[in-house]
Design a protein that fits this description.
The protein is α+β, with helices and mostly antiparallel strands. The chain is about 65% helix and about 10% strand. The protein is built from six helices and five strands, in the order H-H-E-E-E-E-H-H-E-H-H. The protein has a five-stranded antiparallel β-sheet. The chain is elongated. The chain starts with a helix and ends with a helix.
């Protein structure tokens, strides 16, 4: 079997860089997978706020974006209570964090699905490697955008909890229970940073290797070669036809 023109002129460094680009795609896919999972779990769990260790409480209280749960320290019984309807009045911190996290979940999920379609191992548009690279770039951009509302919502929530607790301590006000941000908030931050990392790999790193791989010569160079050959065939066909037309014109005049 005779190798094609694209594979015949690929040097060893280019092949190594092409493999590195594929590894970066897989690494970004792993980061995106865990980031989407972290964001979804953080959005729908109940430990955004947890009572601090210095609180005089015999139970653990966790507050999430949708409900509040109390776990008894002695028997481990856990009871949860949903918040009022979403149309009821809630604090700005709660409403804004809900909206930002849901937006981050949707964008991150869309970016991850788009990334799957752009992987070389997925048989989607196998004859269009240039388009698959473009799909990966779109996925990376979407993941970068998804990380923004996620990190804004989680950091805003954490800062608000910290400021509220610090202000109570500063003014010597003790309400019997004090809160700190819990593992759900940390999970949201980790998921957002993971989206940033996956998006950076797909956009910045793959941009460096954009001239490496089969899409360097396909489809545009191949299409240009075919189009050039077609034009030359048409010209070679039109040239004798034009000469024949001129001969007929001369005979008619005579």
């Amino acid at each position: 079997m005779v190798p094609g023109p694209a594979s015949a002129h690929v040097s060893l460094p280019e092949r190594m860089l092409a493999k590195m680009r594929i590894l970066l795609q897989y690494a970004a896919c792993v980061f995106a997978f865990f980031s989407v999972g972290f964001l979804i779990v953080a959005t729908w769990t109940d430990c955004w706020m947890v009572n601090a260790d210095d609180s005089l409480e015999v139970s653990t209280k966790c507050r999430g974006l949708w409900w509040e749960c109390v776990t008894n320290a002695f028997d481990g019984i856990r009871t949860c209570e949903d918040y009022d309807s979403i149309f009821a009045e809630h604090s700005l911190k709660l409403v804004a964090t809900r909206a930002l996290m849901i937006t981050a979940d949707i964008l991150a999920g869309f970016g991850f699905i788009t990334l799957l379609l752009g992987l070389d191992c997925v048989k989607f548009l196998p004859d269009e490697p240039y388009i698959k690279v473009r799909i990966c770039f779109v996925a990376g951009t979407t993941l970068l955008i998804a990380g923004a509302p996620g990190i804004i919502g989680s950091v805003w929530y954490a800062v608000d909890v910290y400021v509220e607790r610090s202000s109570l301590i500063l003014h010597n006000i003790f309400l019997g229970i004090q809160y700190k941000f819990g593992w759900s908030c940390w999970l949201a931050m980790a998921g957002s940073l993971g989206c940033f990392l996956a998006g950076a790999v797909l956009t910045c790193c793959l941009y460096i290797f954009k001239g490496i791989g089969p899409e360097k010569n396909y489809p545009y160079s191949m299409r240009k070669a075919h189009s050039t050959a077609g034009v030359s065939v048409v010209k070679s066909y039109l040239a004798p036809q034009t000469e024949t037309a001129k001969m007929y014109a001369v005979d008619t005049r005579v």
